[in-house]
Amino acid sequence: MKEHIYKAHFIELPEPLENGVAIYRKEIECSDVKSAVWSVSAYGTYKPFLNGEEVGRWVMAPGWTSYANRIQFQNYELDLKDGKNVLEISVGLGWTPFNSFRANGTSALPVIASLAITKTDGSVEYIKTDETWQVSESPIRFSTIYDGEIYDANFTPSFDKNAVKSPLASNYLIPQQGEDVITHERIAAQKIITTPLGETVIDFGQEVTGYVEFNICGSKGDECCIKHAEVLDAAGNFYTENLRSAKQEMRFICDGKPHLHKPLHTFYGFRFIRLENWPEEVKLENFTAVVVHSDLKRTGWFECSDPMVNQLFKNTVWGQKGNFLDVPTDCPQRDERLGWTGDAQAFARTAALIFDVEKFFDKWLEDLIYDQYANGQVPNVIPNTFSDRGGGSSAWADCATIIPWQMYLAYGNKALLLRQFRSMKKWVDYMDQHSTDDLWQGEWHFGDWLNLDDDKTKNDVLASAFFAYSTQILVDAGHILGVDVSYYEARIPQIKAAFCRAYMQDGVMKVDGQTGCVLTLAFELCPEEDRPKVAAQLNRLVSECGHLKTGFVGTPYLNHVLCQYGYSETAYTILLRREYPGWLYPITQGATTIWEHWDGIKPDGTMWSKDMNSFNHYAYGAVCDWLFGGVAGINPDPKAPGYKHILFRPYADKRLSYAKAALESRRGRIESGWQVEGEKIRYTFVVPTGCTATVTIGDVVQEIGAGTTEMLL
Ligand code: BGC
User: Fold this and answer.
1) Is 90 exceeded by the pLDDT of residue 579?
2) Which of 18, 109, 331, 360 is least enclosed, having the fewest CB within 10 Å?
3) Which of 143, 111, 146 is nearest to 128 (CA)?
4) Mean pLDDT value across residues 302-328
5) What is the pLDDT of residue 2?
6) Side-chain half-sphere CA neighbours of 121 within 13 A
């Protein structure tokens, strides 16, 4: 009964549609119904309807997986009435045609469904998709993820054709594995702006991912458009160049009747909308931004005395919401929105603090297993849409080891580590087999993406550093799982020694690059006695210019290692810097999410570039794991993961008068914070029942148990 959908067949349109949407329909007679469960999926995105009403909360179902291997299905309880009931399923392309930076395609829009009706006498009747289902084109005349939708209210579905059997096999289906993707906040339109160009623009005050729900009437045949954008330009005009080829539109053709409308098979990244040819007076109450993302449980909160740092944290939360729409994406707006592995690994630790992301990553990591190449390389994006490209870039591909490990630290669950272990090993073996004299050199990498020191930290340095780090994670995981990893254990000192021989001299990095120093410290690549020298080198490199120069690869570890080696003051200077480059500069420019570039908008209002300038790119939001781990001081202990034992290591700085964080862990609520009291600092720690903690503040080390502990130091 539970898996009756496997007995159904995919059906599809007799003639494929280009960028179109189909509606499948079946009328059924019902009586004596006790309960009914409808299992539905599609190769595309679908929305089910019963008697003209939407069914279920899901948006963009069935979600995005490695489609060549698996597609999720969802179950919906239906409230069938006695007599005639109409089942309908709207199906659009969704992510299925995604190929590199293209989202358009021609498709027969396959759908599959099975409705199990349990009668009052206990018997079960099944209504499955088959050739008796009728099908029609939809009033949604066009729908793609990048370009948006066109809806013609004058179009009446004809249902004059029957569906045909699709060659797609139902054994591709898997039950819903990730979190449900649903709507969350509804944000009222804040203000209407008439721009210098005379455009009518609405500001929602917050960059979000989702869509706009709007009321419209107009006269029959009126055609209007809502365009979506993240920012206004220097002159205050609506700015869309950074969306590249993505149109991000919602076009509507009126029939003279009132409608409350929303798109069904697409989503947008936006804060502003521009109304084009709006056929009636523009009223704020007619527009609502509806936020869409995976239904993650919120677990982490941070607050301190600096409102700009609080805004940075808030922007990171919004960045996560905006980019956790079933897969972890780089951005939600331009012609990309892909599961970039490098961004995901940089942000995973922060992600697991702010929200409970185990189930979310459990699904995505299984897709990684499916899409990983036979030679062990990991594609650059998961699900892999780059049919023409390889993978295996250092730091990007290391998501195969880093993310399972971070999930283990956060939730203490060995099962996920166990399932991923082969994939982790395959990736480490790839690096090992491609290494020469214990170094991994010479292959193609993204490098320390978007760094500011002209790639001083060369790709070879990154590659061997991550080779060592991933090998270490594999060894740690092997020990936990009881797997023999002695070969890899023996490799670690060899790789590290080769790294030091090649890239270090007199105990410091040969090349003065911030990220090289950061990784050497974070991954413990050099002998312990040299680490203070490397830390001093890093501190000098930051202090000389007064800011960070690290890119996607070095930034997540930068402030952690500065604190660890006695330079917390420098870490705070980096954090609190309000000028470019640094975390607070975008906030001075009104950012409500994390930008891809520190200077996405320059002080004079001009744009960094039109090509690669996302205003919702969570990667640099990774600083929030330092807000938790370094500022407030909440850290998991690898020896007792899932916060069974907590490592409290706060680094206070008197430029803030207080800071505090709370983490709703699986074992209960953890709190850590401090406030300045004259010359002293009062620390407060809350440990959940059944857990223990070690507090380390400078030279003070104290074991504490459950409950609240205060320390005045
Ligand atoms: C994405 C990045 C990604 C990068 C790879 C970009 O287009 O937006 O965030 O990691 O490509 O270099």
Assistant:
1) yes
2) 18
3) 111
4) 98
5) 60
6) 4
Q: Please report the pLDDT score of residue 616 as a whole number.
A: 98
Beta bridge partners of 115: 38, 127
Q: How far is the CA of 518 from the centre of ligand 1 (A)?
A: 21
Q: Tell me the whole-structure pTM to 2 decimals.
A: 0.97
Q: Enumerate residues 6+ apart whose C-beta is below 8 A from 263.
A: 140, 143, 148, 149, 151, 211, 250
Q: What string of DSSP letters covers 376-394?
A: S--BSBSS---TT--B--T
> What is the model's pLDDT at position 130?
97
Residue 459: its pLDDT value, please?
92
Which structural domains are found in the chain, ordered by start?
4-138+155-176 (2.60.120.260), 182-294 (2.60.120.260), 306-316+338-349+388-403+415-424+433-621 (1.50.10.10), 646-712 (2.60.420.10)
Question: pLDDT grade, residue 541 (50/70/90)?
Answer: very high
pLDDT of residue 555: 97
Q: What is the DSSP string of 32-85?
A: SEEEEEEEEEESSEEEEEETTEE-SS-SSBT----TTT-EEEEEEE--PPSEEE
- Which residue has the least CA distance to atom 1 on ligand 1? 330
Cβ–Cβ under 8 Å, residues 403 and 373: no
Catalytic status, residue 358? no
Counting every residue written for the chain, the total comes to 713
3-state secondary structure of 212: strand
Task: Give CA separation, 341 vs 117, 367, 402, 552, 596, in Å.
Answer: 42, 12, 10, 12, 15
Residue 662 has pLDDT above 90, yes or no: yes
CA–CA gap between residue 682 and residue 153 (Å, rounded): 63
Q: Which residues line ligand 1 (CB under 6 A)?
A: 330-331, 336, 340, 342-343, 446, 449, 617
> Roughly what angle, to the nearest 10 degrees, separates helices 486-503 and 514-522?
150
Confidence of residue 43 (pLDDT cuts 50, 70, 90): very high
Q: Which atom of ligand 1 approaches the CA of 343 most closely?
A: 10
Is it the case that residue 330 has pLDDT exceeding 90? yes
Q: For the chain, give the percent of residues with pLDDT over 90.
A: 96
pLDDT at 1 over 80: no
The phi, psi pair for 155, rounded to 5°, reads -85, 125
pLDDT higher than threshold 90 for residue 567: yes
List, as one string, the DSSP characters of 299-360: -EEEEES-HHHHHHHHHHHHHHHHHEESEE-S-SSSS----BHHHHHHHHHHHHHHEE-HHH
Task: State the closest ligand 1 atom to the C-alpha of 619, by its place in the atom list counted from 1.
Answer: 9
Instruction: Enter the DSSP assignment of 144.
Output: E
Is 213 an annotated catalytic residue?
Answer: no
- Pairwise CA distance, residues 113 & 26, whole Å: 11
Q: Give me the pLDDT at residue 389, please.
A: 66
Average pLDDT over residues 394-418: 98
Which tokens is 92 given?
Answer: 């659009």
Cα–Cα distance, 111 to 171 (Å, whole number): 13
State the average pLDDT for the chain.
97
If phi > 0 it is left, if psi is from -120 to 50 it is alpha, else beta; for residue 410 that is: alpha
Dihedral over alpha carbons 214, 220, 223, 227 (to 10 degrees): 0
Q: Percentage of residues in the chain with pLDDT exceeding 70? A: 99
Q: What's the pLDDT band for 5 if we cut at 50, 70, 90?
A: very high
Distance in Å, CA 175 to ligand 1 centroid:
31
The one-letter code for the residue type at 473 is: I
Dihedral (CA of 93, 98, 99, 100) sign: positive
pLDDT at 244 over 60: yes
Q: Which pLDDT value is given to residue 24?
A: 98
Cβ–Cβ < 8 Å for 332, 325: yes
Q: Which of 392, 405, 561 has its CA nearest to residue 462?
A: 392
CA 319 – ligand 1 centroid, Å = 15
Which is nearest to 434 in space by CA: 392, 486, 469? 392
Taking the mean position of all CA atoms in its chain, how far away is CA 488? Answer: 31
CA dihedral sign of residues 171, 177, 178, 184: positive
